[in-house]
Amino acid sequence: MGELSVKIKIADREYPMKVEAEDEAKIRAAGKQINERMKAYRDRFGIDDKQDLLAMVAFDCLVDAMQPENNHDGTDVAVVEKISALHHLISQAL
């Protein structure tokens, strides 16, 4: 189908990305889930620092990915790599 240029808003910042058309919905859902988890941590713990919130979400996602039921045919390695790449992009932006 080809690549699409999309902007995903995470922690009040827009991140331009090029994604395959068939992955667009998944990418947007991931961005939405990150923002929802940040909001949940902000509401639960009263934390406003975005870097702290993003670190907590990254940690939470990694713990989820490491659960045995989420370990399907090596996909946990791909998840860890994607989270690491997102963490790197977010760290650079902050």
Short description, anyone?
By secondary structure, the chain is an alpha+beta fold.
Please give the domain count: 1
Molecular shape: globular
Strand content: 15-25%
Helical content, roughly? 55-70%
Unreliable parts:
none
Side by side, the strands of the main sheet go: 1-2
Q: SSE order, as H and E?
A: EEHHH
How many β-strands, per DSSP?
2
Number of helices: 3
Spatial gap, N to C terminus: 33 Å
What radius of gyration results from the CA coordinates? 14 Å
SS-based class: alpha+beta
Let me know the average pLDDT.
Answer: 86
Largest sheet: 2 strands, antiparallel
Give short descriptive properties of this protein:
94 residues; alpha+beta; two-stranded antiparallel sheet; 3 helices; globular
Kindly describe this structure.
Helices cover 62% and strands 17% of the residues. The radius of gyration is 14 Å and the shape is globular. Helix 1 packs across helix 2 and helix 2 runs antiparallel to helix 3. The chain has 94 residues and is α+β, with helices and mostly antiparallel strands. The relative contact order is 0.12. The model has no long low-confidence stretch (mean pLDDT 86). The chain has a two-stranded antiparallel sheet with strand order 1-2. The protein has three helices and two strands; from the N terminus they run E-E-H-H-H. It has one domain.
Please outline the helices and strands.
Layout: E1 3-10, E2 13-20, H1 24-45, H2 50-66, H3 75-93
Antiparallel strand pairs: 1-2
Helix pairs in contact: 1-2, 2-3
